[in-house]
Write a structure and sequence with these properties.
This protein has 165 residues and is α+β, with helices and mostly antiparallel strands. It contains three helices and six strands, in the order αααββββββ. It has a domain of 57 residues: Head domain of nucleotide exchange factor GrpE (Nucleotide Exchange Factor Grpe, Chain A, domain 2), CATH 2.30.22.10. It has a three-stranded antiparallel beta sheet. Strands 2-6-3 form a three-stranded mixed beta sheet, with no helix packed on it. α2 packs antiparallel against α3. The longest helix is centred in the first third of the chain and has 67 residues. The relative contact order is 0.09.
């Protein structure tokens, strides 16, 4: 009982002195609340950043995998196009067109360089031939392709060189 009386007396003293002790306790509790809130918000932001990084990494991995598969299919597409020039068969044309449609749906895009100024980033000059204008692609030996803005394979081309007599 003596302990309880002592505690009650201490509480009475605190109340008798006024509210400054309670105010500091309240301030302390508010500061502690704010600290926990800040920690929570920081942890939430870290988690959201982690989710974004994981999503970006997953998207980048999927893009790299698709790019790898498309790159491995390009020789097959080249062979279909070569076969189409030698064999005029509607079935072969249909198969090639379907294959091209599937590749385009995945994001493959042919680089159009014929009759345009030579660009070393999109084409590789294999030969230089005489022509009326300088630096114009006159023949495409092997088509070039891009995937989502990246050059997958540069076109192999013949470039004109102006000849003066």
């Amino acid at each position: 009982m003596d302990d309880q009386n002592q505690n009650e007396e201490q509480v009475d003293e605190v109340v008798a002195e006024g509210a400054p002790v309670e105010k500091t306790e309240l301030q302390h509790l508010e500061e502690e609340r704010d600290e926990y809130k800040n920690k929570y918000l920081r942890a939430l932001a870290d988690y959201q950043n982690f989710q974004k990084r994981a999503r970006d990494d997953r998207d980048q991995t999927a893009k790299q995998a698709t790019k790898f598969v498309l790159l491995r299919m390009l020789p097959f597409l080249d062979n279909l196009e070569k076969a189409e020039t030698f064999v005029s068969d509607e079935g072969l044309k249909m198969i090639k067109d379907q294959f091209v449609a599937v590749l385009e749906k995945e994001g493959l895009k042919e680089i159009d360089v014929l009759d345009k100024e030579y660009d070393p980033y999109t084409a590789e000059a294999i030969d230089i031939v005489a022509g009326k204008k300088d630096n114009i692609v006159v023949e495409v030996l092997e088509k070039g392709y891009e995937f989502q803005g990246d050059i997958l394979r540069p076109a192999k081309v013949k470039v004109s060189k102006k000849v003066t007599n």
